[in-house]
Write a structure and sequence with these properties.
9-stranded mixed beta sheet, globular
Length: about 325
């Protein structure tokens, strides 16, 4: 089974069809039959064979793991829950673990990390934002983590004419156009899923943050944007307490802070630092190069974009009404 993320092919090799189905489930819209791939992730449903690993010195640690890196081999140990071994000479990863929850979460984050590096190396950019389309326009709305991107996306999908690009990280192509990247939609509140059939819902008990419930993107299959869109509206969102929702135009330079946070630095996006970073003194220099490349794509995005400030109230229905009216007005103008 191959996951093809906008030209980058990741092959998933799992010990059973049942486990493979669980692992690739978030990427259902990007699955292709075949064995040709740019990189292979082999999943082993077993305790990591620590005694068989080579002698490795710890490079650094993150809140969820310890990283051992000697250049050709990188091992990420999730404090005994499992491990990932990257063999750089073979362009392959091996993921070990005995708990399906861990394997699903680790596999998902690993794929995002690999794809993120692909984007950085190929002039593409992920944006931490909710994005929908209406007519031929893409509406990108960055909201800080926990600010309600998925809630807003769910609300807009109830409105006729709106299509989902991504509820969390639309992708900007080399030319500044917006590429669809609908994976899955998550919520901590299962009561919000009462109207969705069980076949589209699954839950994962995550390593650090507990149980989260997910909805397959294919549930909205008829409302998923399939096109690359070049006409973009960027709505830099901010929340207000006890205030009214509004959308007002702002100069492009005033949304650059949002682009810096949500795209260039990618705050809120999973970066996979355990796979990106090492102990080499050249690491910092290479990350500066990454920031510069992201900045070039961000400026291309800004060139194709009209910019607004979206003040979000604490009333989701009001926010939905404002965005719907705004999108309709923009489409009638263009």
């Amino acid at each position: 089974m191959v996951i093809n993320l906008h030209g980058y092919r990741i092959h998933c090799d799992a010990p059973s069809e049942e486990l493979q189905t669980k692992l690739v489930r978030p990427f259902q819209l990007f699955l292709h039959e075949g064995n040709v791939a740019d990189i292979v992730i082999t999943v082993r449903n077993q305790v990591p064979p620590y005694r068989e690993f080579p002698t490795l010195e710890a490079s650094f640690s993150t809140p969820r793991n310890v990283v051992y890196d000697r250049g050709d081999i990188k091992l990420v140990d999730y404090f005994g829950k499992g491990a990932t071994v990257e063999d750089k000479s073979r362009a392959s990863f091996t993921l070990y673990g005995t708990d399906d929850n861990f394997l699903q979460e680790a596999f998902y984050l690993l794929v995002l990390s690999i794809f993120g590096q692909y984007c950085d190396n190929n002039g593409m950019l992920r944006v931490h934002a909710m994005a929908v389309s209406y007519g031929n326009k893409a509406f990108i709305m960055p909201i800080p983590s926990g600010g309600g991107k998925s809630t807003m996306a769910l609300a807009m999908l109830e409105e006729k004419g709106f299509k989902l690009i991504s509820d969390d990280e639309p992708v900007v192509a080399r030319d500044g156009s917006i590429l669809p990247f609908a994976l899955r939609m998550g919520t901590l509140d299962k009561t919000r899923l009462a109207t969705i059939p069980d076949e589209y819902i699954y839950s994962i008990d995550r390593m650090e943050f507990g149980v989260k419930h997910f909805i397959d993107a294919r549930y909205w299959e008829a409302q998923l944007e399939q096109r690359a869109l070049t006409d973009t509206i960027y709505l830099a969102a901010t929340r207000v307490l006890n205030g009214e929702a509004s959308i007002t135009p702002v100069p492009k330079y005033k949304v650059f802070k949002s682009l810096l946070r949500d795209a260039i630095l990618g705050v809120g996006l999973y970066q996979g630092l355990e796979f990106m970073l090492g102990h080499s003194p050249f690491t910092t220099i290479s990350k500066v190069g990454t920031v510069l490349r992201r900045s070039v794509v961000a400026l291309k995005l800004l060139r194709n974009t009209t910019t607004y400030r979206f003040v979000l109230s604490d009333d989701i229905d009001e926010n939905r009404r404002i965005l719907k009216a705004f999108a309709q007005s923009q489409t009638s103008q263009g």
